[in-house]
Automatic annotation (TrEMBL):
UniProt-recorded Gene Ontology molecular function terms: phosphorelay sensor kinase activity
UniProt feature coiled coil, ranges: none
TM spans (from-to): 17-33, 39-60, 72-93, 105-125, 137-158, 170-188, 200-220
Entry superkingdom: Bacteria
EC number assigned by the record: 2.7.13.3
Pfam families reported for this sequence: HATPase_c (PF02518), HisKA (PF00512), MASE3 (PF17159)
Ranges of residues in domain Histidine kinase: 418-637
Keywords linked to the UniProt accession: Kinase, Membrane, Phosphoprotein, Transferase, Transmembrane, Transmembrane helix, Two-component regulatory system
Cross-referenced CDD domains: HisKA (cd00082)
Protein name (Swiss-Prot/TrEMBL): histidine kinase
Amino acid sequence: MNIFEKIEDRLKNNTKINMFYISIVITILSYLITKDYNVFYIVIEMLCASLTMAIVFITFTKKYKSNSIFNYIGYGFTLLCFINTVHIVLINTIEVGNFESKGTIFVWLANNYLEYMIIIVSTIFTKAKPKVTDLIFVYCLVIFGVALFVIFTLNFQGTTSDYLVVGKNIWKYTAILCFVALLLIHKYKYYIGRSESRYLYTYLLLVFIYEYIVKLYFTFSIQPLVFIYIIKYLAYYFLYRALNEYILFESYSSMYDDLLKVEDRHIQLNKTLNDRLNILKEVKVILSKSEKKYVSLLESISDGIIIFHFDEISYANKASAYFIDISLDDVKDMSLGDTLEKLGLNYSLSSEKFLDESISIEIDGEEKYLDIYMFESEENTKILFIKDVTEKNINYNLKIELQKYLGEENVKNEFYANISHELRTPINLIYTSLQIKELYIQDNNYEAIEKNTVVIKQNCLRLIRTINNFIDANKISENYLKPNYGIYNIVELVENTAQASVRYIEKMKMSLVFDSEKEEIYTICDWEFVQRAVLNLLSNSVKFGKVDGYIYVNIYVNNDKLCISVKNNGPGISSDIKPYLFDRFTKINKSLNRDKEGSGLGLYLCRSLIELQEGELVLISEEEYGNEFLITFPYEEIHIENKDSIYKSFEINDLVEKVDIEFSDIYL
């Protein structure tokens, strides 16, 4: 027999013997011995009250299905328990044998009313499954009905016979309530349960029999048998037994089921725990193997690896001992501060969470370059990497030297290509022109001889320009070229240079616009350097300008700067060329069959000549709006008393020849 069957047997057998039979026997024996009817009646009522209290206690303390009819009956019996208690108090206050007082009669009537109403309400609730608020509302109505009984009892004036007349009429209604309760139980027995319905039938029939016999006593003064009061106790007992079986027993059954579930859960948890313990053992074995593999891997790495825990070494590979230049056993006894100090780093760095340093130390008589990295992998744990970058640095330096050498070779090759082209082309043209000239002389073709002479002259000037540019570029690189300062009217200097270039500008069908905010602006400069720079900018504007385009030359003072702007509306210089535009041998068109010649030294020389005078040359270019070259000099206003002396120092005799030389690489 399992525990469930033991509980069931104990609840069904022991409860009947101990609670019912023993109490009945004791009550009957007490009456037979004392012959006291009043005491017997009070004892029976107290037993009934104790059963109602037990029913209420079981309902409110034991867990059962929330929509069971016995739960609703238990809630209603709270009121019945109160009425029974009042009934017992009234019995103790009246004279012996005078039970037909008005208080006793109306308490009986209220008790009868509640007994049937509780069953009716509970039956309806079993099907309707009301909310808590509905349950409270309905029982408030029941309490209101009881209150009407109390008020009627306290205010009714009449003899005992009058009370009995009223009681007879009320008994009729209670009989109707009993019939309604039986019909509802029969109608809703599917929701209540068949076995539960049998208990309720028995309870209602016993209560009705008891109340009918008592009614005979009040109506016809027929003295009932003493033991007829046991019927009421028996009715309450059957209801208590039903609650005991369907609530108390089911509560223990639910507890037993919960215990079984807990036990099953415990078994499942134990199984899960054992599985996880087995997995943990396997993981530990795997971790142990992995740890050995990682240790072997770390030992095979040529970089030093040291792990610090609370700034004390917890692991160090063999390579770290080599870099620190002590034995591995001694390394493991060192702290973080000692390790960093051994590497020549400041001890205060041991408090940092991250370290990135490059150092050079001597190991076994050789200079080694090391990169030191340290970071905090987790709280109070730091990892120090020591990487030997000696070979890497050597290779890097060799790479830099190689790139420098290749760059120089490229410059040389480009230089030779440029100088070969710039020298060979005009020489070939001169030589060819001389050969053709002999033929023209034999034919007396003087017009052709004149044209041929122009070609020879232009290429001679081109040779002069190329040689001068190479010589000056070399002087600048060797710091041999120095400015010869003087005070000059920069407006006149630039304007004369621009006007001397007009004949070449007009031949390209371009227009020159010169403007200055002042007619005279005196400054300290090397006039030849300025003239040569302006000529170069004008020749570039002609070379790379567009037909029917414009060249704007503007001179103005902006705060403490003297500005000379040479601007054209030709195609803008590409953004790819801008960073290298002022470098040596930079050409916009590098092909050897270009229609506009040049060595690529012009803008380099131009900027260098300006910078030698503490000036600056910049390009302001937009590909769709042309190019502007802006020359700026530091400016401080100079007051000249004898301007004639300034004019005499300004030589312009060879300006035309310089213009011819500068524009000699433009084929018109």
